[in-house]
Amino acid sequence: MTINIILGAIAIAASVVLGILLRRLLVRRLQKTVLDNWIVQTLGALVIIVPVILGLIGAIAIFNASFVVAALQQNVFKDPKPTINLSWSLIQTALILALGNGIARTLRAMMMRSLGSSRMDINMRTLMARVLYIVVLSITGFLILSVWNIPVAVPVAVLSAFTVAITVAFQDILKNLVAGFYILMERPFYIGDQINITSGMITYVGKVEDIQLRATLLRLTSGEEVSVPNLFIFSNAVINNTHFGERRSILVLTMPQEEFDRDGTTSKILLLLKEYPEVMSKPEPAVMVDGYEDGKISLQARFWVATGQMIDISQVVYELHNLFPTANISIKEPV
Fold this sequence. Notes:
- By secondary structure, the chain is of the alpha+beta class.
- 59% of the residues lie in helices and 19% in strands.
- It is built from ten helices and nine strands.
- It has helices spanning 2-30, 37-63, 65-77, 80-116, 122-147, 153-169, 171-186, 230-235, 262-275, 310-323; strands at 194-199, 202-211, 215-220, 225-229, 238-240, 247-256, 286-293, 296-305, 328-333.
- The strands form two sheets. A five-stranded antiparallel β-sheet has the order 4-3-2-1-5.
- Strand 7 and strand 8 form a beta hairpin.
- Helix 4 (80-116) packs antiparallel against helix 5.
């Protein structure tokens, strides 16, 4: 008994080591091809499974050889055809499922890469790649049905009933899916744009990382990632901060009236703004009186910057503070 246990453990350990070595060799070779990483890892896992199963069978045979032989003679050797057919169907299903998913992912990546060199925008490339992915998975499903000799009418009827139930139970999810298709087709913004989404007291400001069918992923200006449902975007106003190449900035300067000189103060501010390369010459910067209150005067300095980044505006604020140290300076735009 002890010898059988030791031999069985050695057989299992040897099969695991052999499977790991085969996986490493296969993955290393397949990573040099155009295959998607998912299918490479799947094939690597399948390579490990085969020797491990053989090792388990060997260990069982060593531990109780007479019992295994009797069971095989009683169930398999007497009529092996059903067992062989079932095993072959399972193997075919696993291979078709793994290869179908891997091929779908590979074709999706290849389409995104090939269309990236064209003038087609990223939203349309993403939509076409996902449609191709769904089509390949649908073909994979029909192939699996053919392996098990299941008529197409059966899954169609089940799918119809399932669709009705899903439509009633998951209305919000379906609305998000429709809104996702609309965003990809209509293209109110692109992947990489910075957008503002406001609804009541809730405001999201961030860079669009991905437009999925159910939600849009934003990287907030504070660094976090937020998943915003597409229906929320579809139902509220969206401000695209980077659609145009320039943005207006407004700085408010509040100073005592006795320190204000109509021509001198305005000229100093305009001269300072024109010295910065970030400030655009067209439209020209302008300075105007915003109001008088409690012996103080408020001025608005309006100018346009090429990028709209806060770092460009902060440099101007710093220099204005050095020029007018007693003035209160605040940023009104961009918000």
